[in-house]
Amino acid sequence: xAITPGDDEDSRxxxxxxxxxxxxxxxxxxxxxxKSLGLDEPSLRDDVELKLRSxxxxxxxxxxxxxxxxxxxxxxxxLAHPVPxxxxxxxxxxxxxxxxxxxxxxxxxxxxxxxxxxxxxxxxDKTIVKQCSQTIKGLVDLFVKAYLxxxxxxxxxxxx
Length: 160
Prior knowledge:
The chain is of the alpha+beta class. It has helices spanning 9-13, 33-36, 41-54, 128-150, 154-157, and strands at 2-6, 22-28, 73-83, 87-101, 109-124.
């Protein structure tokens, strides 16, 4: 079941003129069970970064994030929780965070999520890695679609 409260016209407009993103991956779970099944942060990062680059979204390292105006980052996270009977509940989210200014005091700069897509799922342990991976891929596709809708020139320009 997909829940995308942060994919609307206003949130998409917050993606306009972003030169790229850095990718942050977090998998929250008990006892590293997903990792033992093959779902780990490095492989998930590789998949997400490849999908972004293939679509023309520039990806920079965490060390180079400050070279991008607004220091935008794509935060990808999975929270998995085992339940009795070999089942898992999980949430998968992809969120774009960036610097924002407070209207009440523009000298204050903070980070905020300006675009997001999340999904809630339920599955058996034998298929949970595939389900989580497919869900993240779908959410990254949703982000790419939103990004390109307000940055159409990037569609053909590749990766700067």
